[in-house]
Write a structure and sequence with these properties.
Helix content is 71%, strand content 0%. By secondary structure, the chain is mainly alpha-helical. Helix 3 packs across helix 5, helix 3 packs across helix 9 and helix 6 crosses helix 8. The longest helix is centred in the C-terminal third of the chain and has 31 residues. The chain is globular and about 55 Å long.
């Protein structure tokens, strides 16, 4: 049984992770059945009498793995800020981001779901976050605390929106979110390339002006709605009987989105400090 996640970044990994576990319980969902044969419910819970050594993922697994991943990231950022000289921290920021970026691509495309990969990603990005946050907070005292509160607020708000069903993750909504993400990425790349030839901020997306403020608000909105895809992926994996280790993959996805959200909120707040 191949199961699809609404989150495009994890669709392949989700399918592979659940094929070996839930697939044994449900057989081949969608395979031709003789006329009159009982229909299998793809969302049915595994039989309590089924013999299997696989432990299925629960929401507790998601919460614990995600919490640990965030903790490692925050501790790494805090130690970088507190213990390393600012010049050294900034010197390590770019290499850390590059290594974390490559590791993130490997995790996403190789469907790696284990603690070493996810925690290493968090620790590496934590170094960069610590250095960046220190620079911002030194120039505008208190801005990091405001960005953290804003990030937590958006995360909590989108979780409430998802759990109450105020916004449902449908294929149409997923297409809109994915399209928006690609659109944002395309604008950033175009702005970067144009800046190399023209100099400065060619499109005005990062110069602190009205266009930059509007662009940051759009990016924050896209990141916030991306959280809905992450939440839905967790719920769908639990329904489908994914193995417990898949929670590390979900934790990675949430970590990527929350880091993106924090950095964009930090940037937006800096525009109002000038």
């Amino acid at each position: 049984m191949t199961m699809q996640s609404h989150n495009p970044a994890f669709g392949r990994g989700f399918a592979n992770a659940t094929n070996g576990a839930a697939g044994q319980q449900y057989g081949q969902w969608g395979a031709p059945q003789p006329y009159g044969a009982p229909t299998q419910d793809p969302y049915a819970a595994p039989s309590p009498y089924a013999r299997t050594t696989t432990r299925y993922m629960t929401m507790d697994d998601v919460v614990q793995k995600t919490g640990l991943s965030f903790l490692v990231t925050v501790v790494s950022a805090g130690l970088t800020w507190a213990l390393l000289p600012q010049d050294l921290a900034l010197g390590l920021a770019l290499p850390s981001v590059l290594v974390a970026f490559v590791l993130g691509l490997v995790i996403a495309f190789k469907q790696i779901a284990n603690p070493v990969a996810t925690l290493a990603y968090g620790a590496l990005y934590g170094v960069a976050l610590g250095a960046i946050s220190e620079v911002f907070n030194e120039r505008w005292p208190g801005i990091v605390g405001q960005a953290l509160i804003g990030t937590f607020g958006v995360f909590a708000g989108m979780l409430v929106v998802y759990k109450t069903g105020a916004i449902r993750v449908t294929p149409k909504l997923t297409r809109w979110i994915v399209g928006a993400m690609f659109g944002v990425l395309a604008l950033i790349l175009v702005n970067l390339v144009a800046s190399l030839f023209v100099g400065g901020d060619a499109l005005g997306l990062r110069d602190g002006g009205p266009v930059a403020i509007l662009f940051s608000l759009v990016v924050i909105g896209v990141a916030a709605f991306s959280l809905l895809l992450d939440f839905d992926m967790a719920d769908e994996a639990i329904r489908r009987g994914a193995p417990a280790k898949f929670a590390w993959y979900i934790a990675f996805g949430l970590l990527v989105t929350v880091i993106w959200l924090y950095l964009e909120i930090l940037r937006l707040l800096s525009y109002f400090q000038e």
